[in-house]
Amino acid sequence: MSGSQRPGGRTARVRAAVLEATQDELVERGFHGLAMDQVAARAGVGKTTVYRRWGGPAGLVADLMDSLATESAPHADTGTIEGDLLENARNVLGAITDARLGATFQAVIAAATCDEEASRALHGFYTRRIEEWARVVDLAVERGELPAGTDGGEVIRAVSAPLYYRLVVTREEVTGDVAARVAGQVLAAARAGAFVRART
Amino acid sequence: MSGSQRPGGRTARVRAAVLEATQDELVERGFHGLAMDQVAARAGVGKTTVYRRWGGPAGLVADLMDSLATESAPHADTGTIEGDLLENARNVLGAITDARLGATFQAVIAAATCDEEASRALHGFYTRRIEEWARVVDLAVERGELPAGTDGGEVIRAVSAPLYYRLVVTREEVTGDVAARVAGQVLAAARAGAFVRART
């Protein structure tokens, strides 16, 4: 097996360097300032390699989001749905208030308003994250904490949404208090059966 | 009283033309493509006037958001909190799925991720909108439909957030079904007392 084929080999190292440089550039310049040559220089990788492998700025962003999805925290398992939803809210809060990660999400959210490839990358990231965390609701249903048929994806969206809404739409501060309140509000609705899937 | 001082006079007509041109340009080119000269030409107004009165692209966007806030629908008063929250969800849905208005919001949301003045304009718009619609919760408390101390602003944010979250973050389709479900989920939480302000 050659070095370039091993996980952690040359190909993986090039990807890691290019994605780190992509994230640096996104944080500093935003999506509109993302330039392939600059990313290549910053990563210490030949331009030809970067163009051949990622095609363009949107390709870099798509691969970065894919990598962030893989690194994203697996769902909590605190033993109660109350604890797990609070963990989801804290996880979102931690991501959006982290200087580097928060700026990355905001840059990709901005890019997605006018770029189809960035939009798909964003959609893919959140689809994976929502599916991963929706399992805490399935576990709660199995434990008898929530009504059968509760839609886990909808519950997780409802916890995450008010935090992102304050971040990018109303431009309000997102604090630990807000995160805890939102988790409690969604839990109350879930217990009342408001997230049970409609029978069709 | 001179013509230029009357509401509907020359000053008001110039503002209306410039803000319409600003919105056209935002929809077609996004915030990064918004150019003062182009807005002036499109509005049929002298460049000097546009520069003197609005300063720059962010000033145009701020005034546009101010004007949209003024035109924004007053809160519903259907007689029940169920009906009013559903109306809020439908109102948000109508705005974000309207080709022109939806593209305007998305352009300003994108701009706000990297421009402080655009961020303040967005914040001002949603603060006014949330305050206006929060009154439906106060009315419901007065009618005895919701517990005393229910935070109207938080209820309205909770209804609007999952719709904007799908629009700009997860990039999922926002339908009338989603809007109705979200209104029902928030109503269940509000009835359970989950939006009652913490005593401090």
TrEMBL record, chains A, B:
Q: Provide the GO MF annotations for this entry.
A: DNA-binding transcription factor activity; transcription cis-regulatory region binding
DNA-binding region per UniProt: 35-54
Residue ranges constituting the HTH tetR-type domain according to the UniProt record: 12-72
Recorded hits in Pfam families, A to Z, give: TetR_C_11, TetR_N
InterPro entries from the entry? Homeodomain-like_sf, HTH-type_TetR-like_transc_reg, HTH_TetR, Tet_transcr_reg_TetR-rel_C_sf, TetR_C
UniProt keywords (A-Z) are: DNA-binding, Transcription, Transcription regulation
Whether Secreted counts among this entry's keywords is no
Q: What is this protein called?
A: AcrR family transcriptional regulator
Q: What is the lineage of its organism?
A: Bacteria, Bacillati, Actinomycetota, Actinomycetes, Streptosporangiales
